[in-house]
């Protein structure tokens, strides 16, 4: 229950930051996906079920802040949450490099889903936009996620499990 | 029971993922009903106080300087406005002689941008004025330099506007100099293209595009962009025309919703200048009053 409350509270804060502050953090036009960073922090070693549920809730909240296409981010973040939880928990070594690569791959997967839906599966348009903005944003999001995960692990009161997981 | 056991005990992870995907797809395919609208209202309420507090703390000195600058600008613009009004009156008299309708003035509702779209691929902004201030869906939104979008959703104390840099938005425009008409569509960033312009039409780089008013979606005469490129199309039937928007659509902070039109009231400039004098404007205000 405490975990769900924490997700809801963190989601509200990050959602507000995403729509009010994120564009001011842009580097060479790349805007970080703070919602994805939060998703990675929350689910990277919690298991796929939590990954899907947290991803769906965060994506749905993000959809409420958009002018159209309700369900688009919910779908993308559910799939991405599943992937992060599945691969982050079981298959990848627990170090910042692999965590960064995982979040980078998740950011790209998220953009592929979102772009396809929002551009009505227009392949040329999707590829152009993906190459133009998704790669850089993905790197930015991954770096930010690694930093945030490291900071969260340093917080007092975190119970670190064997292998560095908390 | 065996199916439930199979789904929720042996394949719980895949089942939860499938449920989430199905719900998302259902949400994507259903229309925007009242339940969804309520959720959007809650999110708009959430954003407003946070943005206001941040702005208040961070911008006091900036506001003072901007205020001083704007006061000087107001005096100069009022003087210019009075001259233009004389031209307008003259124009209206001539229009009446020819049987045309009189021109009106637009009512502008100043708004602050309190949030941008949380998705990088849907360009919309949330504004701090809503139904309480008379905002309705479909009202055009302009910036200091020209058209920026249109209100699509209205909540009690906020509203959401779809910007021009959106694949689903197209604007009928005309070239200010030669009156050539075309349809403006978004390409990327602040770049647009003007379609349906014949190869023989008179259009050059540097030309200004304004809204045509055709279709009555956007009012006529608001600047939209500047032509920067004119090249021959592959078909040789039309031309490919690149346009850069007047306003940087990624950096909007203050905009105006056009809430309607009205007739100009005589003596309005004088009242505005008196108000400016009372609030401590400097001497030139009196000089520009047209006494």
The proportion of residues forming helix of chain B, as a percent range, comes to: 25-40%
Helix content of chain A: over 70%
Instruction: Please write the CATH class name of the domain at 104-263 in chain B.
Output: Mainly Beta
Based on helices, strands and strand pairing, what is the structural class of chain B?
alpha+beta
Full CATH superfamily name of the domain at 104-263 in chain B: Rod shape-determining protein MreC, domain 1
Tell me the Rg of chain A in angstroms: 15 Å
Description:
The complex is a heterodimer of chains A (166) and B (291). Chain A has 166 residues and is mainly alpha-helical. Helix content of chain A is 72%, strand content 0%. Chain A contains 6 helices and no strands. Mean pLDDT of chain A is 82; it is low at 159-166. Chain B has 291 residues and is of the alpha+beta class. Chain B has a domain at 104-263: Thrombin, subunit H (Beta Barrel). Chain B is built from 6 helices and 12 strands. Chain B has helices at residues 2-10, 12-29, 34-58, 60-98, 268-278, 284-287; strands at 105-116, 124-127, 140-142, 147-154, 159-163, 170-175, 181-188, 191-195, 208-211, 223-232, 239-245, 254-262. Chain B is globular and about 85 Å long. Mean pLDDT of chain B is 79; it is low at 281-291. The interface between A and B is large, with 49 and 43 residues.
Summary tags:
heterodimer, A: 166 residues, mainly alpha, Arp2/3 complex 21 kDa subunit ARPC3, 72% helix, disordered C terminus, B: 291 residues, alpha+beta, Thrombin, subunit H, six-stranded antiparallel barrel, six-stranded antiparallel β-barrel, 12 strands, 28% strand
Question: What topology does this entry show?
Answer:
The complex is a heterodimer of chains A (166) and B (291).
Chain A: H1 2-20, H2 34-43, H3 48-64, H4 72-90, H5 96-118, H6 123-154
Helix pairs in contact in A: 1-2, 1-3, 2-3, 2-4, 2-6, 3-4, 4-5, 5-6
Chain B: H1 2-10, H2 12-29, H3 34-58, H4 60-98, E1 105-116, E2 124-127, E3 140-142, E4 147-154, E5 159-163, E6 170-175, E7 181-188, E8 191-195, E9 208-211, E10 223-232, E11 239-245, E12 254-262, H5 268-278, H6 284-287
Antiparallel strand pairs in B: 1-2, 1-12, 2-5, 3-4, 3-12, 4-5, 6-7, 6-9, 7-8, 8-11, 9-10, 10-11
Helix pairs in contact in B: 1-2
């Amino acid at each position: 229950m405490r975990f769900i409350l924490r997700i809801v509270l963190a989601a509200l804060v990050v959602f507000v930051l995403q729509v009010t502050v994120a564009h001011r953090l842009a580097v060479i036009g790349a805007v970080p996906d703070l919602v994805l960073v939060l998703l990675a922090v929350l689910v990277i070693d919690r298991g796929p079920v939590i990954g899907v549920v947290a991803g769906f809730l965060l994506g749905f909240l993000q959809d409420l802040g958009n002018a159209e296409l309700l369900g688009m981010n919910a779908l993308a973040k559910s799939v991405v949450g599943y992937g992060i939880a599945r691969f982050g928990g079981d298959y990848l070594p627990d170090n910042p490099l692999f965590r960064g690569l995982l979040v980078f791959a998740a950011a790209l997967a998220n953009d592929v889903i979102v772009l396809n839906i929002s551009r009505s599966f227009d392949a040329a348009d999707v590829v152009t936009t993906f190459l133009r903005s998704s790669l850089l944003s993905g790197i930015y999001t991954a770096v930010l996620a690694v930093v945030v995960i490291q900071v969260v692990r340093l917080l007092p009161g975190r119970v670190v499990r064997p292998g560095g997981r908390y | 029971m065996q199916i439930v056991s199979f789904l929720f005990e042996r394949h719980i992870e895949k089942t939860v993922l499938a449920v989430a995907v199905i719900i998302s797809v259902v949400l994507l395919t259903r229309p925007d009903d009242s339940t969804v609208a309520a959720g959007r209202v809650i999110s708009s309420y959430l954003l407003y106080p946070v943005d206001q507090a941040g702005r208040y703390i961070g911008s006091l000195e900036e506001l003072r300087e901007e205020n001083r600058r704007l006061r000087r600008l107001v005096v100069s613009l009022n003087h210019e406005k009075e001259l233009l009004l004389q031209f307008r009156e003259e124009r209206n008299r001539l229009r009446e002689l020819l049987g045309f309708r009189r021109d009106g003035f637009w009512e502008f509702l100043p708004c602050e941008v309190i949030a941008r779209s949380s998705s990088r691929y849907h360009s919309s902004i949330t504004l701090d004025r809503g139904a309480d201030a008379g905002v309705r869906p479909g009202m055009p939104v302009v910036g200091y330099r020209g058209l920026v979008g249109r209100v699509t959703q209205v909540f009690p104390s906020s509203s959401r506007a779809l910007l021009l840099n959106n694949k689903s938005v197209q604007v009928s425009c005309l070239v200010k100099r030669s009156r050539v008409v075309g349809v403006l569509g978004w390409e990327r960033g602040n770049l647009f293209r003007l379609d349906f312009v014949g190869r023989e039409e008179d259009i050059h780089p540097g030309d200004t595009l304004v809204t045509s008013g055709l279709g009555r979606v956007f009012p006529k005469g608001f600047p939209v962009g500047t032509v920067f490129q004119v090249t021959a199309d592959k078909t040789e039937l039309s031309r490919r025309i690149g346009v850069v928007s007047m306003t940087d659509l990624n950096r909007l902070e203050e905009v105006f919703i056009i809430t309607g039109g009205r007739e100009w009231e005589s003596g309005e400039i004088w009242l505005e200048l008196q108000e400016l004098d009372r609030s401590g404007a400097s001497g030139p205000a009196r000089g520009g009053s047209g006494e």
